[in-house]
Design brief:
Helices cover 34% and strands 19% of the residues. It folds into two domains: 191 residues, Alpha-Beta Complex (Penicillin-binding protein 2a (Domain 2)); 340 residues, 3-Layer(aba) Sandwich (Beta-lactamase). Helix 11 runs antiparallel to helix 23, helix 13 crosses helix 15 and helix 13 runs antiparallel to helix 21. With 697 residues, the protein is α+β, with helices and mostly antiparallel strands.
């Protein structure tokens, strides 16, 4: 029997299915319409911006780094443009090793280039462009351009390079720039958004000296360029741009010709010298020997040069003027004498009998002069540098009173100079010793330790900058000025100049008559005392004090004999001075390491500095050679007019780049009267033991 279909039921089911499908389609269309409304209306601006960003790219424009000038407008740091061959490891289609090997067939790539590249690669991320060769010639650029298609991920870029025209001269002051490393990038993450944005595209940053401390002023403001890009990311056309603002010009108070004179006078000897204007604190010369060539660091220093600098026994990377610490030796005595007057421990006329030694307990503290100096008052104690006088004075004052009085001069404190890395030095006290040592027996201060402090030995360790600042304070009638290297910052966009105002950071409470006693004795040192030979015949009057700091302890039954000692165990020669004595315009402190008596090896350099600064005189060639060897006190030969000494020209430029055009002063003698211009961890150098048994003047 045939089953008949229920047509009505089938139609009902069909209508239900059609209705359900229609509802589903309607809902889908409604959802699509709602999505379109959401995207086209509510997210219109956001999506338009994303589309625009996909079509365009923002490229940072790195600004030209600012210049560094000396007080007379001589350029100390500048920039020049050169081509570099760069590799982006993440974009290579071949292995890095094979790519470098193939590139070497087109452009000369040395083993040094490869080592430097590997070092940069370790400090960088794979997507960064790294230079494998710098300073390409036009011929090399053309050779690579012809075969560019063979090397995806390799390209030629035009970059600005930093250049230090005078090489090693004043390198510790100027500093250098180098590629930003991972640690510095991490530090930058803590900067505010504005500062981070300003360093977009920047790959180099100041690492040392003025380059580091004035990084923000020298860097400038980063510009931006908006370019239209293709789907492949290639730039099609420039849409808009905002130019970069060059960095400011930083001008130093330093006289680079004076700096060169001092560095030349040191020759191959190690040491440091700081000269400054006591009235303002402006640094005139800031010498640390030996020096180094900052151009080595600009595009990445190679392993050999780094090892030579870092492992050298002479420590050329150590800024001895800022970070090296030394026993002050007898240069400490004038400050001790002033403290004695202020505390009533001595009067100017009070005298002691000096037999040539001072017994304390069963220990004999010897004077440098066998048989002693006889009857010694305060004037003679400074002029003749009598150790016994200051052994007794230190015993009478005690370590804590000495610490309290010496701190007024800034010993054992940061001076606040405007470059980073300054060492604090050490001005001992009983409290310091309790903090410095763990064992109770080491924390105790022994009375015998006090005696050697009086002659600038023992635990005393100061920087040459601190001694120079203290000397300038005495020369400036007790006003202590903050030392500063930078005298002016010039904004290139506005042409406005911001001069660095002198800043007084302290004032001695010493009575004027007591200061006069000390200054009279310091003048006596250079007229009839331990440095008289160096200043014989000078056309001006100056004050000074020699010092000879012990490096190792000599046993009581032994006598110091430099010829029988290792060269690095010999005494340091120190000297502090100012001139003219009546109205000082320059003060200095200095050390020449391991050469002996300060009057014979340090004071002669100071004499030539004063002759240059006050009279415009330059040593004769004969005199220069003699001073370098420690064989001259009074100038020999006929001094030359400093204005007639040719300043090194383009031939003195380093191979790293050309010398930028710079104005050269007519003569250094004009600098004092017309100073306005035209346009690592601290390393303590070997010090004496806590209780030395011998001291020298």
């Amino acid at each position: 029997m045939t089953e008949l279909r229920n047509v009505e039921a089938d139609l009902s089911r069909f209508r239900t299915r059609v209705l359900a499908a229609s509802l589903v389609v309607l809902v889908c269309f409604l959802l699509l319409a709602m999505r379109l409304v959401y995207l086209q209306v509510y997210r219109h601006e956001d999506l338009s911006e994303q589309a625009e960003n996909n079509r365009t790219a923002i490229v940072p424009i790195v600004p030209n780094r600012g210049l560094i000038l000396d007080r007379n407008g001589i350029v100390l740091a500048t920039n020049y443009s050169a081509y570099t061959l760069e590799i982006t490891p993440s974009r290579l289609t071949d292995t890095l090793e094979r790519t470098i090997e193939d590139l070497g067939q087109v452009i000369d790539i040395t083993a040094r280039d490869k080592r430097r590249f590997r070092k940069l690669l370790e400090e960088s991320k794979g997507f960064e462009s790294l230079p494998i060769r710098t300073k390409l010639t036009d011929e090399e650029v053309a050779k690579f351009a012809a075969q560019r298609y063979r090397y995806p991920g390799v390209e030629i870029k035009a970059r600005l390079f930093r250049n230090y025209p005078w090489g090693e001269l004043a390198s510790h002051v100027i500093g250098y720039i180098g590629r930003i490393n991972q640690a510095e990038k991490k530090t930058m993450e803590d900067w505010d958004d504005e500062d981070q944005a300003n360093y977009r595209g920047t790959e180099y940053i100041g690492k040392l000296g003025v380059e580091h401390s004035f990084e923000r002023q020298l860097h400038g403001l980063t510009g931006v360029e908006q370019v239209e890009t293709s789907a492949g990311g290639r730039a099609v056309r420039k849409l808009a741009s905002s130019p970069a603002t060059p960095g400011n010009t930083v001008k130093l108070g330093l006289d680079i010709r004076l700096q060169k004179l001092v560095e030349d006078l040191y020759g191959n000897r190690r040491g440091a010298l700081v000269a400054l204007d006591p009235r303002t604190g402006e640094i005139l010369a800031f010498v640390s020997k030996p020096t180094f060539d900052p151009n080595l660091f600009v595009d990445g220093i190679d392993v050999e040069n780094w090892q030579a600098l870092n492992e050298s026994i002479d420590k050329p990377l150590l800024n001895r003027a800022l970070r090296g610490t030394y026993p002050p030796g007898s240069t400490f005595k004038p400050f001790m004498a002033l403290a004695a007057l202020e505390t009533g421990k001595r009067t100017p006329s009070q005298a002691i009998s000096d037999p040539g030694y001072f017994w304390f307990g069963n220990h004999k503290f010897r004077d440098d002069k066998e048989g002693g100096h006889g009857m010694v008052d305060m004037y003679r104690s400074i002029v003749q540098s009598c150790d016994t006088y200051y052994y007794m004075l230190a015993n009478d004052m005690g370590v804590d009173l000495m610490h309290e009085q010496m701190s007024h001069f800034g010993f054992g404190e940061i001076t606040g100079i405007d470059i980073a890395g300054e060492s604090r030095g050490l001005l001992p006290s009983t409290e310091w010793k309790r903090r410095a040592y763990r064992k109770p027996e080491q924390q105790k201060w022994y009375a015998g330790e006090t005696i050697s402090l009086g002659i600038g030995q023992g635990y005393n360790n100061f920087t040459i900058l601190q001694i120079a600042t203290a000397t300038a304070t005495v020369a400036n009638n007790g006003a202590r000025m903050k030392p500063h290297l930078v005298s002016e910052v010039v904004d290139l966009s506005t042409r406005q100049s911001q001069k660095i105002a002198p800043e007084q950071v302290g004032q001695l409470t010493a009575r004027p008559e007591n200061l006069a006693v000390i200054r009279k004795a310091l003048v006596g040192v250079n007229i009839e005392g331990t440095s008289a030979a160096a200043f014989r015949g000078a056309a001006y009057t100056s004050g000074g004090k020699t010092g000879t700091a012990q490096v190792i302890t000599i046993a009581q039954n032994q006598k110091y004999n430099a010829s029988q000692m290792d060269e690095r165990h010999r005494d340091h020669a120190l000297y502090m001075a100012y001139a003219p004595a009546e109205e000082p315009k320059i003060a200095l402190a200095m050390v020449v390491e391991n050469v002996g008596f300060g009057g014979a090896n340090a004071a002669p350099i100071a004499r030539r500095v004063f002759d240059y600064w006050l009279q415009g005189l330059y040593p004769s060639e004969e005199d220069m050679a003699a001073v370098q060897k420690g064989q001259a006190t009074t100038p020999v030969g006929k001094p030359r007019n400093a204005a007639d000494i040719a300043w090194p020209g383009a031939q003195a430029a380093t191979a790293s780049g050309p010398v930028a055009a710079a104005s050269v002063p007519a003569g250094p003698a004009s600098a004092p009267s017309a100073p306005a211009a035209t346009a690592a961890a601290a390393v303590a150098l070997p010090a004496a033991s806590a209780v030395p048994v011998r001291a020298r003047r």
